[in-house]
Amino acid sequence: MKKQLITLTINDQDYEVAITPMDILADVIRREVQLTGTKKGCGEGDCGACTVIIDGKPELSCLKLAIACQGKKIRTIEGIADPKTGELSPLQKSFLDHGAVQCGFCTPGMIMSSTALLERNPNPTKDEIKKALSGNMCRCTGFVLIVEAIEAYVNAKAESGVN
Ligand code: FES
Ligand code: FES
């Protein structure tokens, strides 16, 4: 299939990529843009490993055509740490501190889904956290530690008075 040049805006940077109309966003992000933090597990919308944030909403990049994402603001796990220092975000640190990361394959998707949740709802309940992560699978941690890490982050932020 003939390739065409399009521009994708990822983590506030424009990338010109040559793709076919059938190319999947997850593949383009990983292969063309070389941002390999976004993982591709099932490739069918079942595992959540490929979650990115598009225009503020968590989306499964394995189900999106890259060509349909022109003009949208895409954020990947690489855009979550401090862009200048590379320091992990407080939420990422909470995942590490609470044993919510083992093999790490699901972690980028978990962080993107929970970041999107916390941006629209800074004080989610446990049920709201579980619901937001219901499309993200983890084979290692048993899920409980991930929810605890997010809760701990929310509680620490409330205690510090920072919103
Ligand atoms: S790779 Fe996209 S949901 Fe599994
Ligand atoms: S940490 Fe291994 S799948 Fe979640």
Which class do the helix and strand fractions yield?
alpha+beta
Q: Class of the largest domain in CATH?
A: Alpha Beta
- Stated plainly, the CATH topology of the largest domain is called Ubiquitin-like (UB roll)
Q: Specify Rg, calculated over alpha carbons.
A: 16 Å
Distance between the termini: 48 Å
How many beta strands in the DSSP annotation? 5
Q: What overall form do the CA principal axes indicate?
A: globular
Output mean pLDDT: 96
Number of helices: 5
* Beta-strand fraction estimate: 15-25%
CATH homolog superfamily of the largest domain: Beta-grasp domain
- Pick out the low-confidence regions: none
| Fraction of residues in H or I helices | 25-40%
Q: What count of structural domains?
A: 2
For the largest beta-sheet, the strand count, sense and barrel status come to: 5 strands, mixed
Strand order of the largest sheet: 2-1-5-3-4
User: What order do the SSEs take from the amino end to the carboxyl end, as H and E?
Assistant: EEHEEEHHHH
